[in-house]
Predict the structure.
Amino acid sequence: MAKNQYTTVMQLNALSASDHGRRISMGLNMRGDVRVTKDGLVRVYVGYRFKVNTKIREVRLGVYPADSLTDLRAKRKAIQDQLDVGIDPIEQTKITKEDKAAKNLETLAELERRKQAAIAEKERIKLEMATKQARMTVRRFFDTWQSLELRRRKDGGADVLRMFTKDVFPLIGEMALEDVKRAHIQEIVDNVTMRGVVRMNKAVLSAMRQMFNFAMDREIIEADPTARIKKASLGKDNERDRVLSSQEIIELFKKMPMSGLSEMAQLALLVQFATMTRISEVLAAKWSDVNVQERVWHIPETKNGKTHDVYLSDYALSKMAQLREHTGITPYLFPSARLDSGVCSKTITKQVADRQRGENSPMSNRTKQTDSLMLAGGQWRPHDLRRTGATIAVELGISPEAVERCLNHTEQSKIKRIYQRASYASEKKRAWQMLGDKLARLEQEALTSETSKVIPLRRA
């Protein structure tokens, strides 16, 4: 091809693999380098040479056939047009690249600015939410605490709600959490103290402390207003040590049938007495956990988190047999009205307390027999029967260690818990049987007493 002879499409298409490495003139100072790819395709890399001042320069126009001959010539003409007006296309490309780089920097700066603005907005919203939460009232936050934390408890937080409704909400319920100070907490505990209930006072303080710690964990408040009030400063608990004497037990056997307690309630107390268990454990018991053949009542869940097996005495079995006639077709020994659970754990305790209020302390919609369970030694509670049963067992010659295991108490000494693994099974069986025999004798004495006018519970 002549140096300035125009190259045609036909000529370009006629190039073959044998032309690899050849440089061809395409006219108008355009030239192409022929290359053959690995797969045998012919490509022509086209450039344009021109002079700027005294320098010869060259720019790449494209690659044929990816770029058509018409497009390549159009690109060449655009460059020539720039030359005609004194613009160096290579220098212009450098300027364009610099402008693009500058724009990229501007874009990056804008992106960073937006990022920082988003972070600032997020922090603003977080602060706004924290401020809003901090202004949340104690009553509203209690609802949050109950739905997230207290609901996991057995009673769903019902006991805590009762305490707060009575002693906390009236004073600080409508206050913002962050506004509650130590003085407010002190006033609450002082009010409970004036009622003379130290144990309840400590329970209220403990519940408030748990709630405020819950708020601190979520960074809603910065300080716990209960922190500097110590339970020890509220006084010592009046630990109950009431133990019924044999004469009082006989008196109880005489009075129960005449007290207005239902037969079911009387059986609950007698089963508790004979097994030295907690009244709540009796009222929650299931028939599926009572094995009459093995004479064992299995308690799957207790106060200390451990299971507990109670060996049933003849006396305890006789009371459960009476009970089975009433509730044996239900899942629970003492079913609730809906039959889907045991009755409320406080039911019997309240009924017993109501019958020891005294003649001058009746309550509306409650029993009028307000002294029908009063005993010579003073007021008693269902839990005192558990303590009395343990005392009787020790007096009958059972070792205190075995009785402690009958009560399912946790050993306070870590060393003993680890190394003393004796189950005391035989001695525990003997303890429950001896206690049952003792109760049977006292019950019989009550029935045969000349002064007794008791109508006995029907035996199975």
Notes: The domain at 9-87 is CATH 3.30.160.390 (Double Stranded RNA Binding Domain). The longest helix spans residues 89-134.
